[in-house]
Design goal:
There is one protein chain. Helix 1 crosses helix 2 and helix 5 crosses helix 8. This protein has eight helices and no strands. It is about 70% helix and about 0% strand. The chain folds into two domains: about 100 residues, Orthogonal Bundle (Rna Polymerase Sigma Factor, Chain: A); about 70 residues, Orthogonal Bundle (Arc Repressor Mutant, subunit A), CATH 1.10.10. The model has no long low-confidence stretch (mean pLDDT about 85). The relative contact order is 0.11.
């Protein structure tokens, strides 16, 4: 059974601009808060959001539903582009950007979308994260919420890079299973 997101992507691959508009309306409220949390600057986050959706428009024909949901496809693209932006800013300024301190920089309110649906989705993810072993949860939170790369996580936790990569992979596999069962 094809989801609405998959149908939008299929139509985008065929050049349907109206489908792209619906796709944007559906997924921008999901990915913008993630981007903002990583880059920590609203203007940069808006630029990254535009890049992510332009990339989705251009790469719609390469989407493979067997590899993940449209949500996962967009979150992965958003996270990657946000980290790319941080790296570019670091290179330009040649200064270290400290990791996000949740106490000092709380997540900003999420724009648009159904608040009840977003709260339910957050609850499913929070429950799934809580079911992971501490080591897996820690590296996933550092990667997705603090925007750290695997190398940065390795240095921060003083653990081998291979260990960090394995924990992220295993944790994401477990999360995928838990979320599938929950939905």
């Amino acid at each position: 059974m094809t989801t609405a997101g998959e149908e939008f992507i299929r139509r985008m691959a065929a050049g349907d601009r109206d489908a792209f508009g619906h796709f944007y309306d559906r997924y921008a409220p999901l990915v913008f808060p993630l981007i903002l949390r990583i880059v920590r600057d609203r203007t940069d986050a808006a630029d990254v959001l535009q890049e992510v959706f332009w990339e989705a428009w251009q790469g719609a024909s390469g989407y493979d539903p067997a590899r993940g949901t449209p949500e996962a496809w967009m979150i992965t693209r958003a996270r990657t582009r946000a980290i790319d932006r941080i790296r570019a800013v670091r290179r330009r300024s040649e200064t270290f950007v400290p990791p996000v301190d949740e106490g000092l920089a709380p997540a900003s309110p999420e724009p648009g979308g159904d608040a009840a649906e977003r709260a339910e989705d957050r609850g499913v993810i929070r429950t799934a994260l809580n079911q992971l072993p501490h080591a897996q949860r820690e590296v996933i939170e550092l990667a997705y919420y603090a925007g750290l790369t695997q190398t940065e996580i390795s240095a921060r936790l003083q653990q081998p890079l291979g260990t960090v990569k394995t924990r992220i992979r295993l944790g994401l596999e477990r999360l995928r299973d838990v979320v599938r069962r929950a939905t």
